Amino acid sequence: MNRVYDLKREVEKPERLTGGHRLCAGCGAGVIVAGVLRALDKEDKAVVVNATSCLEVSTFMYPYTAYMDSYIHSAFENSAATCSGVEAAYKALKRRGKLEETVKFITFAGDGGTYDIGFQSLSGAMERGHDMVYVCYDNEAYMNTGIQRSSSTPRFTRTTTTPLGSAQKGKQQHKKDLTEILVAHNIPYAAQTAPLGNFKDLHIKSHKAIYTEGPCFLNILSPCPRGWDYPMDKLAEIIKLAVDTCVWPLYEVEEGVWRLSYTPKKKLPVADYLRTQGRFRNMFQKGNEWMIEEAQQYVDQKWERLLEHTGA
Amino acid sequence: MSSCLSGNEAVAYAIKQINPDVMGTFPITPSTEIPEYFADYVANGEVTTEYVTVESEHSSMSVCIAAQAAGARSVSATSACGLALMYELLYVAASCRLPITLACVNRALSGPININNDYSDSMGARDSGWIQIYAENNQEAYDNFLMAMPIGESPGVRLPVMTCMDGFITSHAIENIELLETDIVRKFVGDYNPEHYLLKKENPLAVGPYDVSAYYMEHKVQEAEAMKAAKARILEVAAEFERISGRHYGLFEKYKMDDAELALVLIGSSAGTAKAAIDKLREQGVKAGLVKIRIFRPFPGEELARALAGCKAAAVMDKSEGFSANGGPLFAETRSALYDLKERPYLINIVYGLGGRDFKTGDVEKVFDRLAEIVLTGKTGPVYTHMGQRSKEVEA
Amino acid sequence: MIKAKDINEHTPWQDLTPGGEIYEPGTARAFNTGTWRTNTPVFHEEACKHCMLCIPFCPDSSIPVKDGKRLDFNYLHCKGCGICENVCPFKAITMVSGGVAL
């Protein structure tokens, strides 16, 4: 990015995700998609690819598309392959002189469509090296079908398939570290970001991902008021706590070089984040203190490893 | 020009002549050779196709769907489990009205795993909204592939086309074949010029909506009407093809049907076996004939009814099980088609050749013997039977 | 070319786009999600420093910007989530109860 980030200039660009979509009030996904698409240079076109998801059923309900650019949805588990196909067509048509302008390819999928059912398709597309960006808006469960656990759901979370029972309480396994798995694909750019503050981190990373040649991956934490059980006006507060507790560290890996994007001034206890959401309520029951301790240990351990990687 | 090619190479050569924009591929026996031959064309710079070697058939069909929507002519090839893995996306391709061309080299579906020929793969996909064209031999496999795009891409149709040939029997056997000159092929197939596509400069395109119940039914009616319209287009393209090749194609082929009293209805390479047996039976004075179905989707019901109207008895030969307990898929279509005839022939269904089980001229003769017996006694006996399996019971 | 504005729940199948394609950008703009609102943000222009922090946080593109200034809400799509009130450092936005700003 050759210009310094200027929020005022960026928000004056014509929007690429319009209002009139049917995402729930306060949903993080719309904010993220608008934020990523804002990083496109004004003169460039894009084709937006979407996995079946809350986002898909809300942003292209016939005959209402919320996208200013071309858009394709095909199925749940194949958005990366779908993006590969559009990019392959672009290369073919360019080679044959049927197309002149620059077009960028951006895929949006939820964590279910990315960490789980779409994982093979994503891995294949990244390995093949298509010039595309894959964005996971990670709301840590299958929200479109009614809050079922995914491999992205954190440990101890209550979902409709990891309920609080007498024998088992919440999800038993830790969250899969997908960003690291994507880094292991040796792609030119992979990053974790979130809709935070003045959106500088999300914007710069999106711009890098879009304008770095080859397959790039963004993992973006996407709070879901319904699934996470918090008041719909608290998006910014929850994101701030996620990064200040290091539950969701912001970092990037560019050509194999790890860089920490944000170090909290004071690393807050994980409980400060967990407390804001009903999905973790059980962890605060008497006798469950060990859950919070273990969650803290897990976050600390991951954070230390990240610091080693980044040399911070 | 005359050549000597396997079915797979003939189809790969057709793809080379067409030089499509995008090919999405994944290996599976017995269709693997198609992307292999094509890889050589790519490696040697003989085509300018974007050749995408994906990590599964699910992704190869996904690539084709997206590329076709983006404005690129797309092709793929697969068999059996590969087609099954594509299953969800076959419906997506058809419902998005994307005229992709897929070479299906028919092989039995697992399980148990088996790599030999039957139609359980493509018959499972018969209701997915794809046009299905079946070949008897290498020549037809080549010709059908060349006709696929002018049919599917026609604005009144806009449906994907599956050209099918028999695994190993056709795909791997080398036969004499007449190839068309590449410039003639290119002119016949023409350019792919969709009205709207994702990469179009003038206006964006949104594909694949969430279609609520207020619209879904209407979109399905559109698709059904397109499939109906495909029949006339198939014949139109066949007529154009005859002009450049001298080879005639219809919805099905009638062999010695003009005065036939006993008839077989079947698909694919078994027609060669049946024709040889019928020639022998004709010498013995048996009025035997054959209808070889070429187009299974759209199903030529009315035409087939007319073709069988003069017969006394017919056997529908299904090379796939439907597990309906009421006969195979070709039988279900055929019997339904004959319902409106004032006088119907006796009709039986024989499931044969599963997983590559041999089907010989002697078997054909046995079927005709049974038809003759039915006509003689006026008793059909068991309507739905299997043939060629070892059994403690004597075959019907 | 069939336009989205001509497509509704009474349109016969012959007049719908094949496969549910849409050939125009941003047709969702015509859909009113403002009716979902149970609380409504109110803009206090005098307090606004035009820092723009509220703009990217609005999930429904309901805050117009022109010449470096944020303008009053466009309520057509605003679902009344209240995120903007919380991210405003200058108390230039307050949520009021009800779907209509009085």
Summarize the structure in words.
The complex is a heterotrimer of chains A (312), B (396) and C (102). With 312 residues, chain A is an alpha/beta fold. Chain A has helices spanning 7-11, 28-38, 54-59, 79-95, 111-116, 119-128, 178-183, 200-211, 225-228, 235-244, 270-274, 289-310, and strands spanning 45-50, 60-61, 64-65, 70-73, 103-110, 133-138, 189-193, 216-221, 251-254, 257-260. Chain A has a single domain, classed as Thiamin diphosphate (ThDP)-binding fold, Pyr/PP domains (Rossmann fold, 3-Layer(aba) Sandwich), CATH 3.40.50. Chain A starts with 6 loop residues before the first helix and ends with a helix. Chain B has 396 residues and is an alpha/beta fold. Chain B folds into two domains: 2-245, Rossmann fold (3-Layer(aba) Sandwich), CATH 3.40.50.970; 252-386, Rossmann fold (3-Layer(aba) Sandwich). Chain B is built from twelve helices and 16 strands. Chain B has helices at residues 7-18, 33-43, 57-69, 80-95, 120-124, 138-152, 182-189, 213-245, 270-283, 301-308, 329-338, 361-377; strands at residues 2-6, 22-25, 50-53, 74-78, 101-106, 131-134, 161-166, 174-178, 206-207, 252-255, 262-267, 288-293, 295-297, 313-318, 346-351, 384-386. Chain B starts with a strand and ends in a 10-residue tail after the last strand. The mean pLDDT of chain B is 98. Chain C is built from two helices and four strands. Chain C is elongated, with a radius of gyration of 17 Å. Chain A binds chain B through residues 45, 47, 49, 56-57, 60-63, 65, 67-75, 77-78, 81-86, 88-93, 95-96, 98-101, 103, 120-121, 123-125, 127-128, and chain B through 21-22, 24, 48-50, 52-56, 58-59, 62-72, 74, 88-89, 92, 96, 198-201, 204-212, 215.
